[in-house]
Amino acid sequence: MEESVIVAESKVNELLTDILKVDPLQEALVNLLVVPKTEKEAAQLTTVCNDLQRVISEACTEATASANTSQDGQKEANKPSGNEMVLRIQEAGVVTIVSILARQNNPFRAKFVASALIHLSTTNTVSPKVVCMCLLAEENLVPDHEIFWVTAFSIIKKIITGVDYKGVREIMKICLDRARLLPTNLRRSQLPLADALCDVMSLIFDLNASLLPGYFIVNELLKLYPEYKHWPHWKLASLLTDFVDKFRRAAQMLSIIARPKLRPIVEHTGHNSPSINSWKLDPLTLKFQLKGALPYNPELLEPQPGLLRYILKQPYSREMVCTLIDIQKKQKQRCVALEEQLVDLMVSALDDCSLSSATASAPPSTPTTASPASPSAASDQNPCTCGHLSSLLIYFVIFQLINFPSLVLRLHDKLKMRGRRDGRDHLMWVLLQFLSGSIQKNQFADFLPVLRLIELLYPEQEPLPIPDYTEPQCAMQMAAICILMHILKKAQSDNIKTPRSLPLVFKNHQEFIQNLGHNPQLPIITAGVPSDYRIALLLNAYSTNQEFFQRPILMLSESIQGNQKSTVPMPGINCVALGSTSPLSITLLETLTVHVKMSLLHNIGQHIQKQTHQKSGVALAPALIETYARLLVYTEIESIGIKTFINSLLPVVYKSHVWSILHALLEMFIHRIHHSPPQYRIQLLSTIHHMTAVPLNTMIQMTQLHLCMESVALRLITGLGNSEVMPSLSRCTLTDTKPTLISTDSEELNRVLVLTMARAIHVTGCDSSGDTARWCVDFLKTVMTHTPHTWANHTLQCFPSVISEFYHQCAAPRENMNTLKKAVEEEYRKWKSMSIENDIIAHFSLQHNTSPLFLCLLFKMVLDTDRVPPIAYKVLERVGPRQLAAHVRTLCDFLVLEFSNSAGGQHVTKYVETMNSIIWVYNIVPIDRLMLCLALRTQEGSEAHVCFFIIQLLLLKPAELRNRVQDFSKENSPDHWRQNNWYEKHMAFHQKYPEKFSPESILAEQGTLTTHYQTLPIYFSNVCLRFLPVLDIIIHRFLELHQVHKNLETILERLGMLYKFHDRPITYLYNTFHYYENKLRERPNLKRRLVSAVIMSQQEIRPAGWALTEAYRQYLARPPEDIAWNPPLSYYTALVRRLVQTIQGKPVFPSIKWRFNEFANSGAHAIHVSCVELMALPSNPTIVANNLFDVLIKGYCDIPSGEVEEWINAIGLILTWLPEPYWIVVHDRIIDLLQSPILSCPGGGTLDPFTLLNLEQLQPSLCDLTPALTLALAHSFWHHASYGQVGRIPQLMRERIRPVLATEEQLVVVCHLVGPFLQRFNTELARKVFDVTIELYEALAKVDRSVGELKYLDPVCDMLYHIKYMFTGDSIKTDLEGIIRGLRPALQRRLRFITHLNLDTIENNASNTPGGNSTPGVSSSSSVSTATTSSTTTTTSTATTSNTNNNTPTTNSTNSTAGQSGTGAGEAPVLGSSGSGISSLGPGVSLTGVGGTGAVGAVAASPSHGTIGAASSLASLLRDASPVSTS
């Protein structure tokens, strides 16, 4: 095979060498004489062309035949195929010709060789791409070889139209590279060289020529020259710059307005919203991850350290930071950019921290005001406190995302340039947190930079004074000496001689610490005495020195553990605990380093495990449990804190069956732990389900423990955040290795789980996702498998469609009421007739398997006799708490039946008294369990009304619950972290209202229990706190039925004060208003009552302005009947301003302790309270949303200069967090914009749409900003939006936008609207990209039919190419092809590479279209294209579609008649029109024009039929060559 290539090369070389031989005299005088050309020489050229064509064709044919023959036999290894050999032969022949051409110094002979080369290309003997690539690869293609340079680029210009677009892209890249060879200072004689190259580039860049998608060109240019400068040569600069600038409009359509100024809300999950992917930054450069190399606005291409720093400032932002910069913690990959921003954040925080020192040293504040009580805190309002910085530092260093020595060195350099020492103690405190816990595990050298930093920040030559150890700030002021002592201890343990002595500035501090270490009398931490923090100083300094550390840490641990010598009573029967009741204060805990807190946590955990193994009858000390809870809230010790608690401690306690400790730990978690990561709450819920599934009948406290477990499970389920539910439920499967959220036997818990899932789907909008629907249905099927149930119609109407449809299709059987009544009567007769105790117990304790009616019998007993016989408690004991739930459900249905059939008021009163006795006198059913079951039963119509009526009567008519709620609210505060006397208040309440857990407590009083009875210790809970989550559910169920809304107002009025103790009051209000928006829309009074009950119940413990604005508080103060209020625009402006300033970091809200607040930071707090207030307004959602728009549109002049983008961000955030009736106004405003005269009427405005929508460009002017601001708000809304909100874009385009589209300006606006979010669709909802793309093409087709002239054709097409090559590929090619074929030829030509349309197909379509291409604008585009390509579509289509035709020796049959001098579209080949030929191979060669005889067309003819035409054509080329002047 290789021989064929060599033979072909030699024959080609021989042919050209022979023909180029000339007379020596003629060679010498060729540049001096004008030698006339003869017909003989023309014939020679024709002969050479035909011979070359024959040689290459024969070699190709032979190679193909040989390859086919070898395929019939055994194929040799690595033997090239026939097509490969053909290509190699062609390349070899062309390379030979090009090398001969490059050696020619004679313009005439160069022109001769060039003509032969063009002939081979135009006859498809060789591929035009091969010719171009061989010319460009020739080593002699340098400016010094002027003849070859000009000839080569002239040939390329003539034949490049036959190259496919991928080949054109390669040619363009090589041409750019060759341009670098041109000298910077061109001489006049060198201008033709640059012109020849520029001509080729101009043809490539000509979009009308359709050689290459412009999108490819600009991508290559910006990849090679990202700075838009340093072009390869100044001669090309104008061409390249102009071409790139044409794409700025396309880049504008793909850019989010003001994106660098937009800021998200950081939530506890670290996952602010489902849109987190759209915020991601490159981990190396911190730049936005933009798709495609386009000339975006420079702001979008710059690093975004401000965004990362903003998120870093927010508490509980660690997970979101990792997601933002796209770093996997498990990979432990260092991120230098993160390190730099953390350093900048620490430096900027020093000023704020130093300013807060005075505040921190102020006297303790009253309970109504929050003041910092820790050395780490600067003001709580400052989001970047030392505690938060410590948490970030520890977290990022542990996962090796930053390097500690490098960070300290950066700090040193920054602070050295800063030249100030403000806040140095705060910085030392932050570093001490990490250093004290890690210095033992790392090398000594890692901490040497800290010594340099201390030298820089403490240059004093006099000793510092000893701080006041009665103030918590002393720990911070002594942080530097603690660091030095840790480093000295490390050096001592590693046998390293420290080269420096301790600085003189720390002399007093060192002596003070050393004296403390040797002082046998350490201060005792007791409540009521003046504060003394010397023990904290000692612990911080010696936490790595066990010699001095053990004594103080044991003393601190023992102060809360208590001892066996002293005990204190606990609520219940025979229950006592170890005698320590005062926990360690938060102030003291925050003066301890992280390492000391970890040691204290370790000691507490060891003590609990020790007590577990001892199984002592004395409960853990209340101080120990309270202190343990306070330590678990610190995120920086999560691994040894909450993680160890869930994964290790709880399982150990459960396996040991120490129910008192298990009960205490569960109570502690649910009443004291704030902001625990969702994965741990899910794991705890799964553990509880596992615990409750195990029979507990062997223990005597089974009822109390089961009640506790159900209460904990209920709080865990209802406490799931909206953004936590979907990931948690979708990840959990019913296997042994995965946690399950589904209870196997509790219908109530599973119903609450379904309600929680419905709420989360509604709020997050996930219902629109097909994936959500699939796993949601699977999840519900599992629920129905364990606990079959149904829902009332008024509940199903509130469910998202996916859940509602499931329950409509999956109905569970309901018990017939008549059958129930008969069964109860029958069993009651049996009860009266039976006399043997064992038979009674055996019969009625097994009813839960068939008909659980025993509680119904007890109801009738109490109703008839006002007493419960003792044997009934034995039955209840045998039934057990798990099975009793089925009896409670039957009792609820029986109560509805009895109340429905009651004769009148006296009977109702008697029924209520009977149930009151069952609940409060005989303690058979707790009020919270009964109310939960009643609220969740499926009742329709009048039965539902009766059920709600029963709930209201049982809650409000008896005084028992109301008295407990009033007394508890009056005497207690929910700010438990500020209290040291919770035990006393807790005991006082339980002594006044003791709780009994039937049947064990009653049987113990009767003396019938065989063992000593002792209730489990109750540390935090009571009936009021247990009832609070049930009240949440009751309110929601009342909201579903509008006929009982008045009843709900009464309940809120009487029991609303209980919301003072709600752990998430604002979140509960937000979810309620969001989920039940359509139920509350016409109930302004009820909305006001809800706000008053939930928020105003906390006014005693919260400062003014913590949630509601002054205007809304005045509205709440109005009389109940005065509900009409239409707030002015200034009200909305003030509300938005509050959110803007909060995001800016300004102290808008009163100081808040974020560790114990329901929200993670001020931003999350601000957005929730703002949305709650807006949803609580007595105004229609459309009015509210339009007013929010008008804050920007109409109130633009009132916005401070330079803050417009921040207001856009705030309004977009608010709209995102509001229900659909509010944010759907965004769609309405978009339609209003499209229908405005400036866009809907041709020529309606003086500005083009790109300028009209460019906010940055318009702001300095006095132009109307409404279109730009509307677009900016839509961008902000969709950038922050959830899946469900942004997923509605295709529907918006299809149903509302497409019908109103009529002008090209409208189409440009639509592209601006959806273009920036294609990347997000591609990441989160891939199928939506296809939907949006198809809608864009449909919109283009409609506008194409409606508009005569297309002025913005190029940017729209550029955007469509961007979509194809960045997102869709060929996935929807078949869907688009039909649309594109229906467009006008100019658009088809632009978009032909998307569906691979051929130019001849486009032209044929144009000629077959009635009226041809007669529309204005189309003719102008097509005429330019025709002039450029000149009917060259035949060869172009061949090259574009496939290269197989180039591998055959025969010519294309479509050109068989081209020997005649026609100019039809089907006759002209690649090289251009009949008037062009190879009219100019370059000025240096002086190849001038050719007569209008279709010369190249003749060359393209078949060699067997078109010899005469080819000869005459080539002869004319020779005759018309102008000689060089002899002068």
Q: Topology, please?
A:
Elements: H1 2-19, H2 24-29, H3 39-72, H4 82-102, H5 107-122, H6 128-137, H7 146-159, H8 165-179, H9 191-205, H10 214-224, H11 234-246, H12 248-253, H13 298-301, H14 305-313, H15 318-324, H16 336-355, H17 357-360, H18 386-398, H19 404-418, H20 424-438, H21 448-457, H22 473-477, H23 479-493, H24 507-518, H25 534-542, H26 546-561, E1 567-569, E2 576-578, H27 586-589, H28 594-614, H29 622-632, H30 642-656, H31 659-672, H32 678-693, H33 702-718, H34 722-731, H35 747-764, H36 770-786, H37 793-796, H38 801-809, H39 817-833, H40 837-845, H41 854-865, H42 870-900, H43 905-921, H44 927-936, H45 941-956, H46 960-971, H47 982-992, H48 1000-1006, H49 1023-1040, H50 1045-1055, H51 1065-1075, H52 1077-1080, H53 1084-1094, H54 1110-1116, H55 1129-1144, H56 1162-1175, H57 1181-1193, H58 1204-1217, H59 1220-1234, H60 1237-1240, H61 1249-1252, H62 1255-1258, H63 1266-1280, H64 1283-1286, H65 1289-1297, H66 1304-1314, H67 1318-1324, H68 1326-1346, H69 1353-1368, H70 1373-1381, H71 1385-1390, H72 1392-1395, H73 1399-1408, H74 1418-1429, H75 1433-1441, H76 1495-1499, H77 1507-1519
Structure description:
With about 1550 residues, the chain is an all-alpha fold. Helix content is about 60%, strand content about 0%. It has 77 helices and two strands. The chain has a two-stranded antiparallel sheet. The radius of gyration is 42 Å and the shape is globular. The relative contact order is 0.08.
